[in-house]
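As a next step, the fold was encoded as tokens, giving this record:
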Amino acid sequence: MDSLLCDELLEEILQRLHSASDANSASLVSKRWLSLLRSSRTALSLRLPTSCSGGGRLCLSSFLSHYPNLAALTLVSDSPNADRCLSDLALLSLSSACRNLTQLRFLVGPVTSSSLQHLSSSCKALSSLKVIASRSLGFDWLAGFRSLRNLSVTFLDCLEDGPPPSSMINLPGGLQLQLETLCFTGIGNGDVGIDWLWRNCRSIRKLRLSSCDGIGNSISDPFFLNLLSGIREIELVTCRSITASLLLRVAEHCRSLVSLVVYDGGNRDALIEVIRNCGSLRKIDLRLPLDLDDDGLMAIAQNCRELQTLCLQSCVMISGDSLRSLGRVLCSSLEELALVNCDAAEREPGLLTSLGQNLRSLKRLDLSYNELLLDKEMVSMLASSRNLVEISLRGCRGLTDMTISAIIKNCPLLRMIDIRQCHKITSHGVGLLLEVPSLIQILVEQSKIPGQL
């Protein structure tokens, strides 16, 4: 039977194996099957031991050579803070063996400019790159990545040999990088070199900053402000020291902003200023226990009439009345609502019912970690929520199988549900969900899956 299948047909069949156990079994059939299975792989994730040496580089290069069609590769290390030797060895190995890569997540250790330049000359189709770097790493090596669109860098407190970033010059002939997404973690106050990016990037549409104390230069830097004018999505996660001033610049310069995400550290007045000046917002995602109040929700209701996604986590300063008013205003536009660990959802009777009656276009609902939420409130909301395709109730300890019955009755389009850590929902309720034909994903503890299945 094996001899009747040509390589092309067998490879097509092997590509359709989605289960890891099935793929592992197929690899044991014969050397031919193993070789074809490897050549059919387009994505791979590997963890490297910190003891990898020069011989390890040869082993890695030899191993990767068996996967000629890899397009996406993730490499991580047991210790991401390892010295640059291991990182350089691994990066040089994959550069020579994986020339067709389009996505690379390289989290082995701090990269060097020389190894990145070698990568750019080998993997010319690379469009997405995530790396760990020292604070002194410059960015002029980016000039060699002509196809790169997404860059993510996590900074570590380690030194790199080579010329200081301040020696970098602009790209020749007015050439501009084609980056569209920039993600930085750990920029320190006064870090140098990053301002080179602000000077040479004009196409950035998404900017994500996490655990940053600065942007490498003054927030009022004209090149940075010019970059902000084209930003459509911005995410600020745990950037307490710069969030207020940065949000004010966003309010002034980001007239085309469609997505705003702020977690763990904001500023009430600056946030309201952004909402008032960025009426084009389609998504707002906030985790601000002390910086979002009813005034912020009223600003959203007055200025963001086309909002499609609203996610509020641990926002304890908002009331049920402001949420009701917001629901009435966004009745035709809002498609996704998340009220995670929301005091108002738990303590104000009738709030969810009102939201369900107004938000008739709602498709995705997340009420996770509202531990005091009861069946009565949930059932009343579901009676008016027939368009839901995704529901997350994780950590809602007060809900029972009654809620499951209401979901099955009122949500004929449902495709995904998360009921993990819902201790009062039983295996009987899970069994009822398993009979719903539209459901393609149920997230629940294995112990609750009916034994006969």
